[in-house]
Amino acid sequence: MKLGEKQVLTVVKTVDFGVYLGSDEERVLLPKKQVPEGIEIGDPVEVFLYKDSSDRMIATTNEPKITLGTLAVLEVVDVGKIGAFLDWGLEKDLLLPYKEQTERVEKGDRCLVSLYIDKSGRLCATMKVSSLLRTDSPYKKNDTVRGTVYGINREYGIYVAVDDRFSAMIPRREAYGKMRIGQQIEARVAGVKPDGKLDLSVRSRIPEQMDKDAELLLARLEQGGGRLRVTDKSLPEDIRREFDMSKAAFKRAVGRLLKQGKIRMDDTEIRLP
Prior knowledge:
CATH 2.40.50.140; five-stranded antiparallel sheet; mainly beta; 18 strands; 273 residues; 14% helix; elongated
């Protein structure tokens, strides 16, 4: 019998409160409300094994949202003294200990987790999933992908599980806007590393992005009364804070608008004609 996995076991005994599955040497209870109608001794039953609130091994025919060796995005339904509790489709919620959280989660959050057996033999969740992510994705440069944010490193960037299966990162230089653990994102593959991991960008390719950035600048000019105290001489951090784009992207957008005659610029400001 394997804790945390789906398996087919044989009915070896029937009782008023359910049936026992397994063998004469090792058996587990399938509670009465879980027993398929018409079941008899010797019949096979596909079940999932976990531990109940009394830490007893128990079988269920309910479908868990996650099993050992797999990944799933689960919702936080409660937070307690020892960690958060996740909805994984079974009666007893799944514990996500604080020490297994890469970022603190709150009720209502969603997070990508895997399942493990702790030192006391209980099933728990962990947000430390990088070792389970694959590096053989079918994606190539400039493909559009979707994934789940599972880690944030202020120095290196945003860790993403593409299709909740493949290892990817949004490098810090490409990490525009606020992102949170569990967020579902759409991104462009900026490159594929030699080890198969993906580099992502949430910005479009330069020509398309230039149009979007130019539209943003025009909108901000209109909101600001036709003037902005920012130029291509401004500090990169000031531009990023003001427009959430790099200085290079800002200069490309300004250059396009100047060429189109839609703005004027001097050493102190950008303004509408």
